[in-house]
Amino acid sequence: MYKYDNYDQAIVDARVAEFRDQVNRRMAGEITEDQFKPLRLMNGLYLQLHAYMLRVAIPYGTLDSRQMRMLAHIARKYDRDYGHFTTRQNIQYNWIKLEECADLLEELASVEMHAIQTSGNCIRNISSDQYAGAAADEVTDPRPWAELLRQWSTFHPEFSYLPRKFKIAVIASPEDRAAMRLHDIGLELVRKDGELGARVFVGGGMGRTPMIAPEINPFVKADDLLSYIEACLRVYNRYGRRDNIYKARIKILVHEIGADEYRRQVAEEFAHVKTLGIDPPLAELERISAFFAAPAFDAADVEPDRSDPDFAVWLDQNVKPHKQAGYAIVNISLKPIGGIPGDASSAQIDVMADLAEKYSFDELRVTHAQNIVLPHVAKRDLYAVWQALRDADLANANLDLISDIIACPGLDYCSLANARSIPIAQKIATRFADAERQRDVGELKLKISGCINACGHHHAGHIGILGVDKKGVENYQLTLGGSGAEDVSIGKITGPGFDEDGIVDAVEKAVEKYRELREGDERFVDTYRRVGMDPFKEAIYG
Amino acid sequence: MVEFRYRDDEVTEQPSVTLDAFLDQSNASAVRLEPDDDARKLIPFLDRLTLIEVAFPKFRDGRGYSSARILREAGYTGELRAQGDVLVDQIAFMRRCGFDSFAPEGSLNPEAVERALSTYDQYYQKAADAAVPVWKLRHG
């Protein structure tokens, strides 16, 4: 894990002091709410329906037990004893008091954490693969590159007032666990002639105009990366649309001028930027990489005892192969049937921190599917880990099943939402509560957004649900066939929307149709792709 | 009105002209860039310019930051002024992009500006100012 040096710490500490000053000026009336808004937003502080919401950055979703315990402490001391893990691998607190915010940030800074650029029209927290450093299929650990980008993007003087927010994801595996091509910039690290570099995709995103990012460069060398990304951003900052907030993301620019023209402009800008000496020497990437060296794996390769049937079910569903023999990746589902997707109590957060410290080389990850990962668990310890999770109501064996739902906070919290998301997630999960039925249905990624901004990634759901406001009544549209993985696609709308109970019925009908039509080991999305929309439409509306 | 200036030379008295007027064979030595003007069009003429004023009609519109860097990267050494809806908390970023004078529409508290400029001692990235980025401090 990356550790701050004096420079990193000084920058984060200075931010706390600056924000304290900004809050004081706001409370004294020296600046207006309109002037304060972009400042608080760059510190992840939103004014929501009921209170301030604070979003804390978890860079590339990686944290240690000390940091995890701090998140629990903050939930207890400053919030209502829980936190909400988000689709961008961050955590949000929903009930924050403005006057306590600087103290909270100071506590975060004491464990090398912050809320810098977790909102606002700037470069947001860099996201990555939750299995980084543990996945068998990765060409390298993507996190050192993500950390390099984190530092470069932090308080970037030219790119803090972009046309719109800007999200970057870095992966290093052919299997995409981070929805890489649905980001403003997606980087896939690859090896070419023995040298590491990045495939660069630009202009993906969800929201009201979902787009899959086209490849803009097949290979950017490590020591050109920052210059190249700076060129990508400069073209966007100069020419991205500012006349319409809904057309301001980079995907619209790339779409309107075309990938070829955007590529040409970036190449021209890069030729200039490269002469400025903004790229750190490779020694900096090596320095950062040293923090991510593999832990001292030494466990014998023993298969766990499967005699406890509940454990065996969880093992098959939530535990994934590790690149190191004798180890496994443990997924902790934050999706209990009837619960709020992504929420965890302070007590649960503490339990996960303890398990990471004892069994996972002190590491945890947050996933974009709003779950937690213990990346390096010895197979001999899996039963003990499962028992501890079970005792904390954290052993939900539903990873990637229909009840492992991504949902935005929706109208229960969010001032942008048109409809509630959480109750829909709860009703669908409850409808499919039968564990055997869920497992029979198999991998099915269901994602719910409470408005067109698509924070719940509905476009990328095998089944997606979008809440809209129809003449003052909540209405839910259904989409099928989306994916945020390496088989990336945008879901298609089935037809007219439904009310709250109707959408649950419609989902069930679609699932039953799949069970009827599937061949071999096809997943829901495979069957949909083979047979198309019509049979599903008939089942749902017929 | 110029409220903050970080240069020792004389203030240019000549009023600034628009980019179009300047390119139309003007002999002016002061020019004003609007957010959608292409700063690169000035590159052939930087030697004879003593003031470039970059307009910020709305503080949220960040195009002027790129304009400033492009001019400094091209070797412009004259006065580079941010004019318009400029907020205290933007001045540090603007200084890093190469601005050295500020004419904010609303008056700014000089103490707050001083505080904003002295908040950070370290910077992660190389920009248009003289600050040495952290990676260079780490590796020499």
From TrEMBL, chain A:
Residue ranges constituting the Nitrite/Sulfite reductase ferredoxin-like domain according to the UniProt record: 52-110, 340-391
Classification via InterPro entries: NIR_SIR_4Fe-4S (IPR051329), NiRdtase/SiRdtase_haem-b_fer (IPR005117), Nit/Sulf_reduc_fer-like_dom_sf (IPR036136), NO2/SO3_Rdtase_4Fe4S_dom (IPR006067), NO2/SO3_Rdtase_4Fe4S_sf (IPR045854)
Keyword Zinc: no
Superkingdom assignment: Bacteria
Coiled coil: none
GO terms of molecular function: 4 iron, 4 sulfur cluster binding; heme binding; metal ion binding; oxidoreductase activity
Keyword annotations from UniProtKB, A to Z: 4Fe-4S, Heme, Iron, Iron-sulfur, Metal-binding, Oxidoreductase
Start and end residues of each Nitrite/sulphite reductase 4Fe-4S domain: 119-272, 404-540
PANTHER family attached to this UniProt entry: BLR3264 PROTEIN, FERREDOXIN--NITRITE REDUCTASE, CHLOROPLASTIC
Protein name listed in UniProt: Nitrite/sulfite reductase
Species this chain originates from: Sphingorhabdus contaminans
Source taxonomy: Bacteria, Pseudomonadati, Pseudomonadota, Alphaproteobacteria, Sphingomonadales
TrEMBL record, chain B:
Pfam families: DUF934 (PF06073)
Name of protein: DUF934 domain-containing protein
Species assigned in the record: Sphingorhabdus contaminans
Source taxonomy: Bacteria, Pseudomonadati, Pseudomonadota, Alphaproteobacteria, Sphingomonadales
